[in-house]
From TrEMBL:
InterPro entries: Aquaporin-like, For/NO2_transpt, For/NO2_transpt_CS. Residues 280-301 are annotated as: Disordered. The lineage of its organism: Eukaryota, Fungi, Dikarya, Basidiomycota, Agaricomycotina. One of its GO terms (molecular function) is high-affinity secondary active nitrite transmembrane transporter activity. It is found in: Membrane. This is Formate/nitrite transporter. Pfam families: Form_Nir_trans. It comes from Exidia glandulosa HHB12029.
Length: 315
């Protein structure tokens, strides 16, 4: 499992890749990610909305568990197969900005194009795969789909903003853990649990809301397009804070901390922290050096470059 500066290098690899993609490819990947969100959202609504209303009222946690169980598959599909997710990119590209690896204009352009692509993919996927087939036209599904849309549009702006910060913090934590994991099974588990947390807590995720609110509008929820954009205005900003600052800045500071305390400079905690970072940097640069290793007590000289490299994960 990757950690420290090695993990940061993997994130930077993804950041530079995203920043260098052509705009049309970025848009295509944004639409693709929106379709994955729509398919996973439809599955989650089918699981949560199928619970009878009287049971939902007695056990309100059950619909949340239904949503939280299946919605994380959107992130599985995006990370393991392909796609560009606006909320995940706020973290990855922020790390690129802090390390001066991706120019700010490319970051802004990527986020705008991916956001538009995500929105189109979510609406198109919901219309084609949930509304036209009539998956939710009968109760208890109809009532639940409408309820979800209305519940996301009746909060105040500040409430939505605060709910959005931990939502994307957890999503970006899932992305980070997915990059750090080396095996497919590890990636699946790492991506699943943080998303479960934010769904059960009722936090607000801008791309998820693109699907849930719009599918509710298609099925006649008592809200409006204006309220949907009101929700987006607060949630997008909160998601950006969670991804670029809470996750992005803290990840950068953990690996590049410079103490402001004069008595900590050059000794004590500062020295230990610097040593930890230097040790990680040496491990990262190991493929270019020759290292002595022993096997069953027998010393053997090998080139570390001949060992399998840790693969980075395109997100």
């Amino acid at each position: 499992m990757l950690s420290g500066l090695i993990l940061e290098d993997a994130v930077l690899h993804n950041a530079t890749k995203k920043g260098s993609n052509p705009i049309d490819k970025t848009f295509f990947l944004g639409v693709l990610a929106g379709l994955w969100v729509a398919v996973s959202g439809t599955t989650a609504l089918s699981a949560a909305g199928g619970i009878p209303v009287d049971i939902q009222q007695r056990w309100p946690i059950l619909p949340k568990i239904g949503l939280a169980t299946f919605f994380p598959f959107a992130l599985h599909l995006i990370v393991l197969y392909g796609g560009e997710l606006f909320t995940g990119n706020t973290f990855i590209l922020a790390v690129g900005a802090y390390n001066r690896s991706v120019p700010l204009p490319r970051i802004l352009l990527n986020l705008i194009v991916v956001y538009i692509g995500n929105f189109i993919g979510c609406v198109l996927g919901g219309y084609l795969f949930a509304f036209i087939p009539g998956l939710f036209e009968a109760d208890p599904y109809l009532t639940y789909v409408r309820y979800v849309a209305v519940s996301k549009t009746h909060h105040g702006w500040g409430n939505l903003f605060l709910r959005a910060i931990p939502a994307n913090t957890l999503v970006c934590m899932a992305v980070t853990m997915g990059i750090a994991s080396r095996e497919a099974a590890g990636k699946i588990m790492a991506l699943w649990f943080p998303v479960v947390l934010f769904v059960i807590c009722g936090y607000e995720h801008s791309v998820a809301n693109m699907y849930f609110i719009n599918i509710g509008l298609m099925y006649g929820a008592e809200t409006s397009v204006g309220r949907m954009w009101f929700n987006q205005s607060a949630v997008v900003l909160g998601n950006f804070v969670g991804g670029a600052i809470v996750m992005g800045a803290t990840e950068h500071l953990m690996n590049h901390w410079k103490t402001v305390l004069p008595w900590e400079r050059g000794h004590g905690v500062g020295t230990l922290a610097a040593h930890d970072i230097e040790s990680t940097r040496n491990a990262r640069d190991a493929p270019t050096r020759k290292r002595r290793v022993s096997y069953k007590g027998e010393p053997e000289s090998v080139h570390v470059s001949t060992l399998p490299r840790r693969a980075t994960l395109p997100v």
